[in-house]
Amino acid sequence: MLPLTSPRVATVLAGVLLFGAGCGNQPRATSKAPSTDFLVTAGDSAFWVSTVDGRLRMRRAALTLAYVGGRFNELYVADDDRSYYDALLVGQRIYRRDLVSGDSVQIFEDKRVTNIARRYAAEHPDERRLGEDEDGSDDPHTVATSEIELLDVLGPLLSYEHHTDIDIANVEDSHNVRYGVVDLRDGSVGTLRSIFGDSAARRIVADARAAYRIVIDSVRRSRSARGRRAARVIDAFHFDSTSFALVDIDGSPRVGFYVPGEGVGGGGLSLPLPHVRTPEPAWWSTIANTVPVLGADSASEVWSGPRYDVIAHYDTSGEYATLVVRDSAKKEWSAGRLPTPTRRVYRLDIANVDTTVRRGLARAFDESTLYSGSARTVLGPHRGRPRIVLTRWSRATSPPVRSIAAPARGARPRTRP
Questions:
Q1: What's the pLDDT tens digit per position in 243-299?
Q2: Nearest partner of 181 among 150, 145, 146, 147, judged by Cα
Q3: The pTM is what?
Q4: What is the DSSP string of 316-371?
Q5: Which of 408, 401, 416, 406 shows the shortest CA–CA distance to 146?
Q6: Integer Cα distance of 205 and 198 in angstroms
């Protein structure tokens, strides 16, 4: 599977390699840490950092969080299994769960698999759907499966990666990967026009098409072994302005387009294009303080605040960062290590985060200890240096998963063993 790549992490890592570990020369405070209370989202988890008796304490939870409309929500993916003995039919849905009420709301459904499942049921009225613990055929006549990976949350918008495999005997054999954006407020599709406006959307698409032409020409002219292999299938990739995801780079939004492949040569592959600079959406000012900017040493990322700054110092591997708090006197206190990439900082020591919201967060952190394993369906991808790579994805090679039924109030996300 081709992960969503981000030049933000690659830029920070380059700074680490150039200037060293990034945090080795920073003054370490021996006095009491300033009063703090904030959340950090990083890797596949959320971290709650607060000051207790003058020392920083950090708690981890296997949660993917979004802050929408003044409320924190957990985002997760659940299977929609409609299989029969001779038909493997497993789609996926995205849900958001309000941490105060505990209610789950569906915000995305894999309609391709759903429609195939409905058609199969209509054409085979005498067949019975498999029970939760029943096994189907080892070689089913009909296969329609998908997998969704949640990538990142910017304000009210969630970016995701969606893989679909269809194999219906004598009818269809297709493998597709696409990227998309969903508005967490109402579950609507996030389009370039709805996010940035008409004129900006046209400019973004024009810039992406120009980058696409450059990439295609570069692949065709390549004389390397990898380039020659890519050139043989490059005609299977056709630019699609709706296959994109949102990222942030040095405190500003960007759009990453991923060109889907088709047919025998390109099915199940995607071609990433260089990220396109965009204007700030209307809501950007409300979330700007949650997005990091590159540190002065180019080896760290900084979330500035009125009383203290939060800083992630990346190590040379790029896989971990040391999280520190820096006061107005430039003294730093270490909170601990985080997986990368670090994404958002949500400050709880502000007036509009009331006790009800805090109780909901505390309950979610407590309940997360009941989830099996540390990795979940809502894993964020490892982000490396952007490069033009064609990568094939296949459900046959992906790890097995356990699933839950369509969730009701208090339902839990699917987990990986």
A1: 999 999 999 999 999 999 988 888 888 999 999 999 999 999 999 999 999 998 878
A2: 150
A3: 0.81
A4: TTSSEEEEEEEETT--EEEEEEEES-EEEEEE-SSTTS-HHHHHHHHHHHHHHTTS
A5: 401
A6: 11
